[in-house]
Amino acid sequence: MNVIGIISSPRKNGNTETLVHAVLEGATSAGHHTSTVHLNDLKFVGCQACNYCKAHEGCKQKDDLSKVLEDIRKADAVIFSTPIYFGQLNGQFRLFEDRMFSFIDATFSSNLKPGKKAVIVTSQGNPDPKAFENASKEFGKIMSMAGFKVVDTITMSNGNNPHAVKERKDLLEEAKKVGAAL
């Protein structure tokens, strides 16, 4: 199985990235091939509403995100991660999410191979883990429409300290178990 971790946090080695690596560690322990993408390191723009993808496979734009979208097409599972900013997925992630519109054909059906799995990972400063759960729920609905089966959502709360998750052994173990179960 090929598993890709998408990291949208601009903060290197922070809570979001640490959780993604824990999921991928679990996936590796189960014999899966894993890789990561740091969206903040890429040069890309959002969807241009050209509808090219409705008559062709893939997005017409050719930038750093093109290969990532193609890799997602080939992957068996994707770990989608984002910090929560102002109650929503961060900007880097939202631009990326818009480009995933190319996974939907003109009839609003998925054009991806069936059976793809998704894990959603979020990190937020708010101590209430349910405070912004709608952001990940809405993204999960979009991923279901795109043909993914969302198998789990991992939420890090009270994460203002960029390394707070390292003290959350329970959450890191949960993330590893999620990865191993892919």
Please explain how this structure is put together:
By secondary structure, this protein is an alpha/beta fold. The chain has a single domain (2-131, 145-180), classed as Rossmann fold. The chain has helices at 15-29, 52-55, 64-74, 91-99, 133-145, 169-180, and strands at 2-7, 33-38, 77-85, 88-89, 116-123, 148-156. Strand 3 and strand 4 form a beta hairpin. Helix 1 crosses helix 6 (169-180). The longest helix is centred in the N-terminal third of the chain and has 15 residues, at 15-29. The mean pLDDT is 97.
Keywords:
182 residues, alpha/beta, six-stranded mixed beta sheet, 6 strands, 22% strand
Offer a concise description of the structure.
The chain has 182 residues and is α/β, with parallel strands linked by helices. It contains six helices and six strands.
